[in-house]
Amino acid sequence: MNGKTIWIIFLSGFWFVLNDGWYLSVSVADDHDDKENSWYHKILDWDDDDDENHKRRKRNRKRHRDNEHDESYLKPVNNPTYKEECGGCHFAYQPELLPEACWMKILTNLDDHFGESIELDDDSKEAILDYLKANSADYSSAKRAVKIMESLGNHVPMRITDIPYIREKHHELDPEIFERESIESLSNCVVCHTTAEKGIYEDDNVRIPK
Ligand code: HEC
Ligand code: HEC
User: Fold this and answer.
1) Does residue 156 have a pLDDT over 80?
2) Nearest ligand 2 atom, CA 161
3) What's this model's pTM, rounded to 2 decimal places?
4) Distance between CA atoms of 26 and 19, rounded to whole angstroms?
């Protein structure tokens, strides 16, 4: 072996150790994005599989974060027929506040709606029912909707304010406040929950009117 060959072997060995070392440290620091951009990775173009996995994990983490954000809140009402026909006398409650069976019960008893008689043409009624059913608490993963479903069991109340979870959340309110004209009833979610229209019922946004 001449001097040149020895040098080449020595340098190759050095190169190998160097890369392995880097590879290990990158695996440990997998949560960082620097792997995709590192120069040696581009030159060597190895472990493509690992790269794919890395990207997929990154996508999943992002999706998970987005969901977490959405699922804290209820979806704001976005159906014009529902808003118009059911939001005139009171707040247009989010569909996720009741299960499908309750909405069905309410819509089949419109001639005696808490002392009111509500007239709706068949098309509007169908559009409203479709909207309420498709977006009801049954199919929601929002944390409040899940709590509502758990707390109801097999009960089918006509009121959101009859759901045990909702009653329990308000049981510390002094009954006398409902004599105030500004409040009147627990059904008036919007007077205390300043962000109710946005589907946000966090306690930070509650303000009880005088
Ligand atoms: C003519 C007025 C009027 C219209 C229109 C109306 N409601 Fe009501 N609704 C009432 C009254 C009055 C109450 C009882 C409120 C109370 O006790 O404070 C009520 C209560 C409710 C409640 C129970 C609220 C609670 O206490 O949890 C739901 C749910 C409800 N309505 C859904 C609907 C739907 C769905 C529609 C559309 C098909 C609709 N309402 C249209 C008058 C109306
Ligand atoms: C008189 C004022 C008032 C009205 C009306 C009212 N709430 Fe509340 N709500 C409160 C207060 C106060 C709390 C408790 C906040 C706390 O725990 O500090 C609360 C708590 C809640 C919570 C639990 C929030 C949490 O962070 O755990 C939900 C969900 C809720 N209300 C939904 C509703 C809905 C839906 C309606 C209408 C059907 C409604 N509320 C009507 C005052 C009100």
Assistant:
1) yes
2) 38
3) 0.77
4) 10
